[in-house]
Design brief:
Elements: E1 6-11, E2 18-20, E3 27-29, H1 35-38, E4 48-53, H2 65-78, E5 84-88, H3 94-104, E6 105-106, E7 112-115, H4 128-139, E8 142-143, E9 146-147, E10 152-156, E11 159-162, E12 167-168, E13 177-178, E14 186-188, E15 192-194, E16 208-209, E17 217-221, H5 228-235, E18 242-247, H6 257-268, E19 272-277, H7 290-298, E20 301-302, H8 308-320, H9 325-333
Parallel strand pairs: 1-4, 1-5, 5-7, 7-10, 17-18, 18-19, 19-20
Antiparallel strand pairs: 2-3, 6-16, 8-9, 10-11, 11-14, 12-13, 14-15
């Protein structure tokens, strides 16, 4: 019978890939070369499923841009051989990886579905089995021979989200991820319902990868009582190029003179400052309240409704391109991969 699609499963590490050793009772990494032996029901898909495992596997807390680059390169090298990719990843930094790949994989026209689980595949009540099987089905789904989901996304607990719109909000429940500012790309029940109006359209151009990420930046969350010593220490970091300022509400911050002076001094030195709300839902609207008017006037970049994960990885990606500050500002405020609202 004809194979519907060829898929590559990339295992980086994480809870989903663990099975209990029947002899010792200890959790050990799953051998994906034996995938069909462990999950014979996959034969029903009629997919060709190959696997690639990171060696050594990585706890998601240890994920960094070097691993994002490796992931992008694995996808790039195998891009023409497969119709879609499923990445098995630990949940803690999954949204960061999804966001980073959305920028690094330019002209992506095939599915990159990232999933994981709260319980290992080898446990009876695991959520990993359903997450994995549904991710495979989504990665192999086509309409008129065109992939249904030509973007980087996260599948978790019956919902498919745009990757760079997600954040992990729960460490215990199976529905661990939310996308507060963008609706799901698909919902999974008895049938998979794709919401085509929410999905990026393919451009059919050749895939390009950006493999340089500059990490000379910092995230600075505001809190009541923050003092000048803290602010000064942050802006005095060697080789600092950018700061993501986590502000209150719709982008509000203290109006005390010392605080605004520190921001202005940093901007005058060429440090980029991006205004991102601490709220997971809603958007920065600089100038809406008096407490954000000064920020807009001095030249903070408006992060609008980006997640902190998307803003951080997008900024690393832009810094890696070594563009002038004005171009960096333009790119940060522009919707490039569905990560930010359209004006």
């Amino acid at each position: 019978m004809e194979t519907k699609a060829a898929l590559l499963v990339i295992y980086t590490g994480g809870t989903i890939g663990m099975f209990k050793d029947p002899e010792t009772g200890v959790l050990r990494p799953f051998n994906f070369d034996e995938l069909y032996n462990y999950m014979p029901s996959l034969e029903l898909f009629k997919f060709k499923i190959d696997s690639y495992s990171f060696d050594p596997i990585i706890d998601s807390a240890n994920i960094n841009p070097e691993y994002w680059i490796k992931l992008a390169e694995v996808i790039s090298v195998n891009y023409e051989k497969y119709d879609g990719f499923v990445i098995l990843h630990g949940t803690d930094t999954m949204s960061y990886t999804a966001s980073a790949l959305s920028f690094m994989l330019d002209n992506l026209n095939k599915p990159v579905v990232i999933t994981g689980s709260q319980l290992p595949l080898g446990m009876i009540r695991t959520d990993g089995r359903d997450n994995f099987i549904s991710s495979l089905e989504i990665a192999g789904a086509k309409s008129d021979d065109i992939p249904m989901i030509p973007e980087v996304c996260i599948y978790f607990e019956n919902q498919l989200f745009r990757g760079n719109r997600t954040h992990k909000f729960n460490a215990e429940n199976f529905d661990a991820f939310k996308s507060a500012n963008y609706p799901p790309l698909a919902n999974v029940g008895v049938y998979i319902k794709y919401h085509e109006q929410n999905i990026l359209k393919p451009n059919f151009k050749r895939l390009k990868i950006y493999s340089k990420m500059d990490t000379n930046m910092v995230v600075l969350p505001l809190f009541p009582g923050i003092n000048s010593n803290t602010i000064k220490a942050i802006f005095a970091i060697d080789e600092l190029k950018a700061v993501i300022l986590e502000t209150y509400g719709a982008g509000n911050a203290p109006t005390e003179k010392w605080f605004l002076d520190e921001l202005k001094t940093a901007i005058d030195k060429g440090i980029l400052i991006v205004n991102i709300s601490q709220c997971r839902g809603g958007s920065v609207e600089m100038g809406k309240y008096e407490t954000s008017l000064d920020l807009a006037e001095m030249g903070l970049i408006n992060g609008k409704d980006m997640t902190i994960e998307a803003a951080l990885t997008k900024l690393m990606w832009i810094l890696g391109m070594e563009v002038p500050n004005e171009e960096a500002r333009r790119l940060m405020e522009k919707n490039l991969k569905g990560e930010i609202r359209e004006d």
